[in-house]
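Re: that chain you flagged

S.,

Sorry for the slow reply, it's been a week of failed gels. I finally had a moment to sit down with the sequence you sent. For the record, here it is as I used it:
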Amino acid sequence: QVHLVESGGGLVQAGDSLRLSCAASGLTFRRYAMDWYRQAPGKEREWVASISSSGRTNYADSVKGRFTIDRDNAKNTVYLQMNSLKPEDTGVYYCATVHSERVWGQGTQVTVSS
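Prediction finished late last night. Pasting the structure tokens below so you have them in one place:
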């Protein structure tokens, strides 16, 4: 069974940085693309960034140039480095992958104060 566990969220001020981690188990991690999503209060969950098994990355326009997704296959972990945070980045951040079906972590809260 695939498990994804996010960590690293917190309360920060606008302009600060955070690094989120997502530890994966139950799959051959290096073979799978990994995604980060977020959900702001009262809004639908939205895609933030993806990294393929080969390391190719893609970003939502709203975070391009500020966020960086990377992975450490030796640690079965995907990261999201978030710089120049804005209040509109506030939300619950989820990592996800597709292993027969979409699998989600439990999420980690990021709150950015102005």
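What I noticed first: The mean pLDDT is 97.

Talk soon,
D.
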